[in-house]
Amino acid sequence: MDAVSWICLVAAGLLEVVWAYAMKQSEGFSRPWPSIITLVAMIASFTLLSVAMRSLPLGTSYMIWTGIGAVGAFVVGVVLLGEPLGALRIGAAVLIVSGLVLMKLSSR
After folding, report:
1. 15-37 residue pLDDT tens
2. What is the pLDDT of residues 91-107, one digit of tens each?
3. pLDDT tens digits, residue range 69-81?
4. CB pairs under 8 A, 24+ apart, for 42-50?
5. Where are the domains of the chain?
6. How far apart are CA 13 and CA 45, in angstroms?
7. 11, 13, 82, 103: which one has the fewest Cβ atoms less than 10 Å from its Cβ?
């Protein structure tokens, strides 16, 4: 498991946040630029995920990719879209991050 695979995986996760936000902004794919950004970021995210999966285990790759996307989308929703921030939502995000850390530690 090399550093390039981990960099690709983190980048893929961050691009998942980009496409999720752009999809929200596309208003059901009715706005062209957010729709284009969504599709390009999706393709790039899946491509980087597939590169990372060449040397990283499937479970690790997929969990970290979706975890970055989930927590990242949560943060973007709160910061940029004014979504509510409650104790249970913070707790859920902390549990996801804890799971990501444990998965990374277990894949040594």
Report:
1. 999 999 999 999 999 999 999 99
2. 999 999 999 889 888 87
3. 999 999 999 999 9
4. 42/15, 44/12, 44/15, 45/12, 45/13, 45/15, 45/16, 45/18, 45/19, 46/12, 47/12, 48/8, 48/9, 48/11, 48/12, 48/15, 49/8, 49/9, 49/12
5. 3-106
6. 7
7. 82
